[in-house]
User: Fold these one by one.
Assistant:
Number 1:
Amino acid sequence: MRSYLRFLGGYLSANLQAAMEYRAGFWSQVASMALNDGLWLGFWFLFFQRYPVVQGWVVSDIIIVWAVPAAGFGLATGIFGRAQRLASVITSGGLDSYLTMPKNVLLHVLVSATSASGWGDLIFGLVAFTLLIRPTPFDFLLYLALVLMVAIIFTAFLVLLGSLAFWLGNSEGLSQQLMGALISFSTYPTAIFHGAVKLLLFTVLPAGFISYFPVELLRSFRWPLLGALFAFTVGIAALAWAVFHLGLRRYESGNRLGAQAL
Amino acid sequence: MTQGITLSAPVRKRPGRWRSFGKYWAVFQISMASSLAYISEIAFRAVTLVALMVIFVQLWQTTYSAQANSHLGAFTIRDIIWYLALVETLATSVPALNRRVDGEVRSGDLAYLLGRPCNYVFYQYAHYLGERVVRLAMALLVASTLALLFVGPPPISFWGLLAAPLVIFLSISIDFGALFAIGLLAFWTEETESFALIYSRLVLVLGGVLVPLELFPEPLGSIARVLPFAALLYGPARTIIKFDLGQFGALLVQQGLTLAVLAFLVAGIYRLVVRRVNINGG
Amino acid sequence: MNVVEVDGLGKHFRTRQRAAGLAGSARALFQPSYRVREAVRSVSFSLERGEMLAFIGPNGAGKSTMIKMLTGILYPTMGQARVLGLVPWRERRALSYRIASVFGQKSQLWFHLPPRDTFRLLARIYDLDEAVFQKRLAFLVEAFEIEDYLTTPVRKLSLGERMRCELAAALLHGPEVLFLDEPTIGLDVIAKQRMRDLIGRLNAEEQTTVFLTSHDAGDVEQICRRAIVINDGQIILDAPVATLKREYLRSKTIDLLLEEVIEPEVTANAATNGAAGQPAGLVGLEGMEGVRVVKIKGHGVKLEVDTRQQPIEPVVSALMRRYRVLDLNIADPPMEEIIAAIYGTNGTSGAVLGMASAGAEPGAHSP
């Protein structure tokens, strides 16, 4: 376990160092993403003030519905920066070098890059939450826990989408779209969705877990709710793990489309 | 004095100004064909469009039912949904022009491309139009099908329909100017993706992709309406949905001015780029 | 104990046939047809500790598939194999601590960072103890002479410098078996030599077993003692490199440096006679079958002797009787000819080889 933490730490440090080689580019990506999030939040803030759409929604709810997914997504792509490129790594045979190394292949692939804009999302989320909500210490700890769980959910979702490449070839275009859809759905109050859509958001496109639960928990904390979120997080992570390794087995048989160059 | 016989060596006829545009038409066609070839990639983009449409339909339905009124400003829910369909069509059909130009600058391909008997700017424009048209068609198909399902047929008048091609064409040309200029910045900056992102966000937020500008809370709404971003999304969509001659005229002026300023900017940057390439070799 | 044991190893790939056209695609959906391709068929061999093996063959012969199976990336469809006593595709993680692979085209070093940072990261990946890592690093840096490049970003290094760092990176965790795929590709002559020396030294000092695939005959000749030639998924030859050259070698090249300059008309004769195989151009060699003048220029003469027809000794004596010989060199022909000869006799004729050799002769025999 300790060796894996040192391994993760080593990669994080190497990733950031490599990013710092192009310092200006890195920081401009961070800044532009933070600005981008700020723009959206600012806009929605004004919109909800003008049009009280959802009963009982207050300012802090809007901020939370941004601050949690943004920070979670940022943490996920900051640390597991290769998650969004998983499909193309698989189809280009990039897994081979990780297979010959002594660490778990999935973790190794995920951690081998960092996304600069992700750090912008993370910073934005943290700043927005601390400055605009002015949380109590308990709230802040809860926030961090939520961000961690949301990050795992995002990562698991990306791994699931990327793993499709084991069977379908390069699915990166599709996974980008679905990821975008997930993020979009996560930043609106779940209450506006009804029926089939709402069902969708608590199953295959887990936006509900990313926005509804955090808002409810930060509004009025209840242990069962946290438990449910935790259970879902563990569940989707386990599913992603299983699916990836199933696909890896197939990869090792060499039978996938467009495999083997001799 | 004898009449001198003038013999002139046969000179290759340089094509007339209009003839030379034929090659850009060819680029346009090839670009369209190429986009159609990987239509599945473009079809995937429909996913985002569907997601956004679903979200906004639900959002606005909830908003409207929270109010007693069937009208918000001058818009009924039907107007709003079709407005959204149009702005989303425009917003999601933008090709990654800045990335392509950025790549050509960084890889040094630009130097070679400048040497071809083809104006680089027009070439990129034709290429871009080919991609954009295909994406627009696809997005329009998806968005209007959804809108039809949700609220029924569009409240478009004859004049709106007539004005549509013009205002859309101007809008996508403005997009070209901006993205092309951003791509050229690759000469001076380490990456251009962040600029493209900011541009895109400004267009979306201040261009009214979520809410028609006139429904914006003041004074933001009035400010946004005079900014050039409004010429990209809000302007065309509104003109098509709720055609108003005065507004149409004002939009044309806005689009025209924005285009003129951009053209000037692009020309300036381009000239700098060419000079730099000529000195440094790319 | 054998470091590598391969017994009847085979791999075939089953790929779905993609049908053309709409009707074909629809049919393929319900009744998929498969195409089976045998990449490796029942290969058996073993390696002892410290052996240096060259694994050669034309493109598509199954070399990459073989390496992938031995490193645990691919699992076979038949047969067994053990590397260091472990089954690669089943105990891959455990094996990975004890082997290393260097693929000429792929880089392990981070492009924008200095090699030192990659080394440090690798220490974490392989769970190296800090003291052990530092000592090992110092040794490798000194042996590979890369001290000057440790802090330079990899993107600024030349290919030769980079490959030395890549090799050092691969050896950081002290692997017992080294898999090399085209390690000298793209390098200039001097850099190639350095790489080969390093690998040789490694083998001598640490008993590292080396498994090399390369299209470069120089790599094979200089690094390896033993060669396995694979074609169409099967081993067609498994022999010491020296045997390879002796058995499949039917000629030797004699390079002479003479005191006198050979007359021009003789040169002209030699040029026209070369194809006929008659040594008419050189006095003293009349009547000798199987001797061909390859080149005459100034003081230098190059002859090719078909050792099946003509033993070397009489040729050399005749030359030394007739001329004042300042220098004499008898050499084997380049590796590519040998390989071509093997393919010609055992494999498919006319196979594309893509072999590069240090000294390809003009007018040399073609397969």
Number 2:
Amino acid sequence: MKITEKEVRYVANLANLALTEEEVERMVHDLSSILKHMDRIAEIDTEDVAPMAQVLYEAGETATLRPDIERAPLGNESALANAPLAGSGCFKVPKVIER
Amino acid sequence: MSGELLSHSIDSVRDDLLRKRFSAVEFTRKALETAERENPKTNAYLMFSAERALAAAERVDEKIAAGDDPGPLGGVPVAVKDVILTKGVRTTCASKLLADYIPPYDATAVERIEAAGGVIIGKTNCDEFAMGSSNENSAFGPVRNPIAPDRVPGGSSGGSAAVVAQGTAVVSLGSDTGGSIRQPASFCGITGVTPTYGRVSRYGLVAFASSLDHIGPFARTVKDAATVLEVIAGRDPLDSTSAEAPVPNFAAHMNGDVRGMKIGVPTEYMKHGTGETAELINKAIGSLRQLGCEVRDISLPATDYAVATYYIIATAEASSNLARYDGVRYTFRSQNADTLSAMYQKTRDEGFGAEVKRRIMLGTYVLSHGYYDAYYLKAQKVRALIARDFTNAFRIVDAVIAPVSPFPAFRLGEKINDPMEMYLSDIYTITGSLAGIPCMSVPCGNTSEGLPVGLQILCDHFDELKMFRLASAFERR
């Protein structure tokens, strides 16, 4: 499938990417060539095939449950240590509501 | 003191430590010195963790002094791919976006390496967020293949393969989503193992495609790779997809006879086979026959759809996993935005490299309204067919063998401008990844130019022992 410039801008917005004009142009070209290859999966018959979301193996029904035991949390300071901007124990972001 | 890492195996380090030929601290200092000196040749290490390494080595020396067992990896210098978290040691995913990220906790695999006496000496370069097949997508420059410096080491775990091949570590950890351990192992002439999905905890592995991501070892021998896998494998309550399956003592049981073992060669993989890679694979088939294996042709009919299926599923999962990098929690924030939404968008555009953006775009597209059924859902169904192909194959054979890559290490820059061509080069490795079965690359010879070629061995879920037995017999051929 050929992807249009308009679709590229729409998808970039969904993905929270502010692409430059050059990037948009390149993306139209690259994604079209990749999607053209991907379109071949339409050929193969998947009638009555259940989608595979995960690799499954034999396990008990509750194998993924852990005992309900308290664990020390990461802690406020460690959690904020990599934030570009933090203060008063919170992540700081640009103003959301304009006056 | 024998400080040449290249001549060492896990066992030889252990022997030398126990015989007091050198201490773990002495050996670690020497390893760090060698690795730092040699690194400019390959750019394989992004970071050395001297403080942490020496502390680990001291603990090994204390154990030996007290007459205790230093552990299965006692004093062994280990390198770790920079997508695997190391507490207090910068972990960048080879991305500008995480250039200053210092993890507040260790990956389970890292914790287990150190608990087994392993000494983590540094973090290795890779494709950004493990997305690539050549290690050219690193924000910190490409890695050069130690065998042929004008060529790529493969990717995405190029650095982890290069340090083991170059002898600046004894073993290393990589991650594999669609071939990122096996292909660089093959390009660098060493052994690389992608275990069964769920065999090794993904806790602390920075997520790319969660249903496909694996951690696995690189080593210069099958035995060393098996020893590392045994250390890191096993259920971890912190990863609900990690399996309860018991972990065998691989190294102790892998030297058995392979006479009568049934091996399948997929006709779909051999039909494009031309050139020296195909010749070396055919030679390997001959060797396996000489070892007494029964080799026969098998069919994996869904193979032609594997590249499309993989790049739909992997990018869809990636677009979701990488949504977390929004300029709020993870170190990098664009300074060119006034509003919150502009901050998200510019942070991501400035922080991510071209390939990562391409995959986020593709993944977002295949998940978007109107395309979900035709791409994502359809790909999940084709994935089931690819997995079924292997289930059927393992009813009649013990192992499947195949090439790892259609060609040996290519030149830097040769394929970087054509993403689709780069994706197609993953054809032989992604099928095993989609099925979640254990697979590995073991060296099977060199081309006339001296470039290594790997033989891929694939077995059924949790059948790593059989895979190691075959690889070990092939290695001793």
